[in-house]
Amino acid sequence: MNHSPDSNDNADTNGIEGYLPTPFEWLTNFSSLAHYLNPDRLFPNNASNKERPRFQVLHVGSGSSLLSEFLQLKFPAYDFVVNVDNDIDVLYAMKQRWRRLVDKWIRMHGSDALERYGRSYYCGTMKFSFMDFQQQDENSLILQNQTNDESGLDEYPSNATFDLILDKSTLDCLLCSNNGAAGLICNVNKRLKAGGVYFCVSFHQADFIKSLLEECPGADWTVERYVVPRKVDSPFILKCYEEMLQNHLESILGIESCSYNSNIIENEKNNQSMANEASAWSDGCFKPNEAYSKTVNVFICRRGEHISNTEYQAVQRHCLDFQEVNKHIHKVNDEYFKMTNPMVTHIRKQQLKNSFLSKVKELDDEGGNRCNGVLPLSYCYDLLFTEAEKEHLSYDYFLEDWSVFCEDPQDAPCMTKEGMTFETAIKFLDTMQ
Fold it and tell me: pTM for the complete prediction?
């Protein structure tokens, strides 16, 4: 859909109904993250500067979240925020929303407001750009900026690097795609300044995401993990926020203090205790307990500061190897899945053993010739998989997997490619899961 940048400029802005999108916070809200996003905490080396530090922020997968609004209003140091998403209509609506709300506030409070706060104090630069982080080549960036221009969105600053990159469950979503997660991480690494922070909020188990980020090949960052209580705003809270944003900005700026104090330290300990009790997998099945839904994980990935940002920008920007990152993600995902949801449980292994022995005996009795414990592949397929699994794995796909398995003699100590022993069948399932 094409949007004119000036469309509806003369629309009635006395109310918020009719042109502003309904905000939606996926996973958790700003208040649960505010303490960790405090620039004094994230960037302590800048706290002693006499001049107010300024930080550039990239919010990936921003959608209709209010995270960047709260971030900029609460922490003026984050005075340049770029929101990127692949939903053009939502981005355009959020851009219009921000511009009109800020303009309305200025009109309501007059020139005194500008003198009191200064425009940049409460509404620094906020941009909204279409961006598909799964794309890797520079030509795709040119095409995406053409889309931004045609849609009335802001051009994505192609050469910019950022102090803070926000990700609230975008990595979670892209892990469900073939290559999306690798594309995201490669682009995050490419855009992150020396000393910058990739702030990743995830509902996944901590061990899985921490391994994925911490062991990412070529990534020059350290990873810290924190646990925060999950908070979701009710419609009433959102309505109150809209009223405050339109009428009394001072109320927004007066959000509960995010200073680092003993109460917050104690809360961190309690959150960690709750997270340790959280569990989602039991006996190979997804069975989240009560604590699992009450917390989310925050991963703070801090890039090395061994070179200055001037030097960093002067040399060729460090890029991760996309293929290596993609292989790493699939490897971590496969290993974690095997650990938490194994295809070959103790019970299933015993059932398969009984089925194999029974079928071998049946064939021996029928044919008179012993098959030496080796079952033909057609029988193996019927015994190894449930009816539900066969819906996703046809016999032809099974044969393809078997052929790949047999190419490596270390993984396939089988006597013949025409059949399996019970031991080979179990090894096949473990390897090909």
Answer: 0.74
